[in-house]
Amino acid sequence: MRKIEEVLRLSAQGKSVRVISRETGVSRPSVATYLEKAAEHEIGWPLPAGMDVQALEQLLFAAVETPKICARQGCTQILDQQPRGRPARYCSAVCRVTTHRRRKRGPVIAEVHFGSASTRNRSEERSWMVKLRRDNDELIVVIGQSRDGAQRLASRLNTTARPTKAMDATRPVRSGSRVHWMACSPSLTSPK
């Protein structure tokens, strides 16, 4: 329970914040806050006529509402206040879907593949290609590479696409006739 009335009365008697704090049992920072807020609203002791303790607390400690902004990164639209229900987080369905898709997209992975349609007349040594893949989208980066060159490029692309410390190492993943070099944590590639 706040003792604002008592704090104002003792302050009007000329007592210091420390003495008021000791006599009322309210902390010094709280006493200082009460006195600052009362000075802002030009309220002293005795209280103005018709003002009780509840009205004084409402006046001094009225909640200041800051407008809420859309949760999508880069959107500064102010949200409309809804009278009922859960408060909105996004200003539109577009912002909500964009944020969801950004959060749910898979990582970009560089893969090394053996052979392609354009490697029919190439030697087996120079018939490796590198692809970038994210979810169902893929992009061929280079074709006609040696295996070592393709693996080095995939490793560099993976470390560039994922600049985190845990994703610096690469490891081979075999599926059928393809060899993928994917980024993985160092704990997975540590020697056994």
UniProtKB/TrEMBL annotation:
Taxonomy, superkingdom: Bacteria
Question: What's the protein here called?
Answer: HTH IS408-type domain-containing protein
